[in-house]
Amino acid sequence: MDASEPTRRPSAPRGRPVEVDPEQLAAIALALFDERGFDLVTMADIAEAAGVSRRTLFRYYPSKPDLVWGGFDEAIARFEASLAAGADSGIRDDSAPRIAELHRAYVAIAEFPPELLEVTRRRLRIIDEYPAVLAHGLAKFGAVHELLEPFLGEPGSLEAHLLADLYVTTGFSAMRWWARSGTGTPAAAVDGALAVLEGEFG
Fold it and tell me: Quick check: pTM over 0.90?
């Protein structure tokens, strides 16, 4: 499907369960948000365009902001998988912040297959444009923050807390810059931004 053109799914024959692709629902919603503006699109509009019931839509996405923030959990899963891969390799020094290991894993958050780049760009642009959507997702960064701290110092220490905030802010800012500029890939933007940040450490 061309993500720029929302399409309505044909209704399933009566009595058969509707086959639902959550990513497809999100792509349709994002296209509608682009076309009409986030505030003017209702969940009923999205359900109609996707050819599903409102109840089905709410089962996958409880609110409009959740449609925009879809994919975040998968990004965190990539981050954790990359950290686990580093642990399995045995390349780690528990006596000091493991910056290189953290850098590699954090860049993994921003790695998307080519077919999802446009959807990701739209998500980030909407987050940038609508403060309420941004506020809705800020709590999600708490999970990232907790994963970062052990790599940046003693967990719970002021130093680790502040550095984790810097990583979260820098990575997210780089993603939003990529969405606006259209330059390179989100992973490259995060990689470059973290290199600048880490340059300040040394």
Answer: no
